[in-house]
Each structure stands twice: as C-alpha cells, then as structure tokens.
Design goal:
Length: 211
C-alpha cells in the first residue's frame, strides 16, 4: 500500500507510465482514432474483432481520459507491484478482452464503448486481493468500497453528473465484467497467491511486498 515505500521505486512505475502515455497518444488521434478503435458491436459482428481490445484504449475526450489516467495513478500508489512488463501487458490484454467479451455476450444493448475504466477495476482487484490475503485492512477497505461501488452502480446506475462530465453514458457493466475477469485471470495465473513472475532483483522477488 501507499503506507510502504515500494511505490517510490521506478520499477513499479515503468509499465503503468507506458500505458498512460499510450492512452494519451491514442487521444491525440482524435475522432479518427476513436472511430477506428472503439468497441462497435455491429462492426465486431462483421469481423472487426480487434475492436474487442482496442476500444479500451480510446476515450470520449480529454476529461474522460484524465479520469482513467488518475485511476491508474491511484492504482500504482495503492498497489505498488514491480511486475515485469510482460505481466502488465498480459493483464491489460486479457482483462480488456474479458471485459468487452462480457459486454458482447451478455449486454447486447450496448452498441458502442470506449474507455479503460473496466480494465482498471480489474487491475485494482489483482492489486488489492494479495494484500487483503496478507490481512492488510486498508486494502480490505478499498476492495469493499470497489465492490460496493459496482453493486450500487448496477442497482442505481451511474450519477447523471458523471455522464455529463465525460460526455456520454457510463457503461457500468464494464466495471462488473472487468472485475469478474480479474477473478478468472487470478484463478488461472495464481495472481492472488503471488505466483506471477516479478521483476528480478525487486524487493518482492526476494522478500514479498511489504505490508
């Protein structure tokens, strides 16, 4: 957690910083990139399968992007893990496909989607659960808040103010499927037990992430 010094290590920031930069570069492409990359149900059904992945990297605008960049920043502060770049890539890719796959199969009325928030919810689960299992009460509180937030969104919907701010509908189901994808991912790769490869020579590689 932010209560330990690991978040000060450059190793925990490299991969997230590259991801944050990539999201900025996509947004610089404007409407052209957004149209080419967005999750579009009809286009996917017509064979443009890449949109299941790329829709997560496009955003409705700069404020929408800012919120997700802020989410990644908080993620690193609360869940500082010196993971190798390939583990970060695997997490982002599989959570992206799991989330949009859930939308495609189970939410047919969502015809378009852009944004990283569903994936970020899943990344929080992967980062918080190992700390919860080490009896970190701050991590437990954060995880309970995350789950409670998703349940409330599914019951009451996203606040109108949030949708007005980003300029479009908040697809709350993306948060649910991103979270569920994280649990499936962890079951496959042993993320909660700390079995995913960590950067050689990092503090966690020899002694575990400090509580």
């Amino acid at each position: 957690m932010i209560t330990n010094s690991l978040y000060r290590s450059a190793a925990v920031w490299r991969a997230p910083a590259v991801l944050m930069l990539l999201l900025v570069l996509v947004e610089l492409g404007g409407d052209v990139c957004r149209a080419a990359l967005a999750y579009d149900r009809a286009a996917i059904a017509a064979g443009e399968w890449w949109r299941l992945l790329t829709g997560n990297f496009a955003h409705l605008g700069w404020y929408h992007l800012f919120l997700n960049e802020l989410g990644l920043l908080v993620l690193v502060l609360l869940c500082p893990e010196p993971l190798p770049a390939w583990v970060w890539v695997r997490r982002v890719l599989l959570l992206s496909l799991g989330m949009t796959g859930g939308l495609f199969v189970f939410v047919p009325d969502v015809h378009g989607y852009v944004g990283m928030s569903g994936v970020i919810h899943g990344l929080f689960v992967l980062g918080l659960m190992p700390q919860v299992l080490r009896r970190d009460l701050i991590a437990l509180g954060c995880l309970l808040y995350l789950i409670g937030k998703i349940l409330w969104e599914l019951y009451a919907g996203a606040p109108v103010s949030d949708e007005a701010a980003i300029g479009g509908r908040v697809v709350v189901e993306s948060h649910l499927f991103g979270t569920l994808s994280a649990f499936v991912y962890a079951a496959i790769f042993g993320s909660f037990r700390g079995n995913e490869a960590r950067a050689p020579g990092s503090p966690s590689a020899t002694s575990g992430i400090p509580r």
